[in-house]
Amino acid sequence: xxxxxxxxxxxxxxxxxxxxxxxDDITLVDIVEGLAEGEALxxxxxxxxxxxxxxxxxxxxxxxxxxSEVVIVSAxxxxxxxxxxxxxxxxxxxxxxxxxxxxxxxxxxxxxxxxTNPMDVMTYVALKTTGFRKERVVGMGGILDLSRFKFVLxxxxxxxRSSISTVVIGxxxxxxxxxxxxxxxxxxxxxxxxxxxxxxxxxxxxxxxAADVIAKKGATVDAPGNAIARMAKSVVWDRKExxxxxxxxxxxxxxxxxxxxxxxxxxxxxxxxxxxxxxSDKERQSFMSGGETIRQAIASLPKx
Length: 304
What we know:
This protein is an alpha/beta fold and about 300 residues long. It has eight helices and 14 strands. Helix 5 crosses helix 6.
């Protein structure tokens, strides 16, 4: 069973992605009266003629999360045009602390996937509020940044995105770190195909692309929904997929006591393993800068 707290545009899209791909027993929860039930009905109507036979339900009662293997949290305020993720810090931290207490109460054995922004800090809030082991609380951001970096590179190089192998780590935000040193196109190093300046331009474009989407359509919905579904499936189907996600570090990459994006093995156990990659000096500097941004944001949090 998958529980989803937040039936707004991103939560509903993630539920649709999961249901369409045959993931059964999905429960949406939202405090807005009728919203979760309405989205569940709409999703059920859409998939009824697709040959997929799954159950999707909605409620405003957290007790319906009971028995969830995975709980995905996208509740809270969303970015609006002109806002950064960190602009949401104060209001969303209180919301996530409250939601996390309910998740811990009703789904104490779940793996919690955090989506709400600023995601790395909200992952930390959820970890501290639930009291779960660090492996059981992860944040969705790097996998989305990775898909955007692939898109930018594919367009620049005029190649299929499936030919691109890359990794994106660090803060899910303006300090994300697409790893050019670990990027190849059909086995050919990116550094052999683009100049240092062109790579820097591609990285900056990737950092800004979400803001471009928000400015044009008001929110990022489809890509986050797909990324959430991929992470949830890796847990419920125990795929042990290696992907970037925010998790609590204990000395890896020179960081301790913060949640930040790194490559993990994601399974039924959550962040089963963390993989530490060799970084260039520039990449390490960017990663540490993102870590400091997260650390300062954590220090500024109100009591929760």
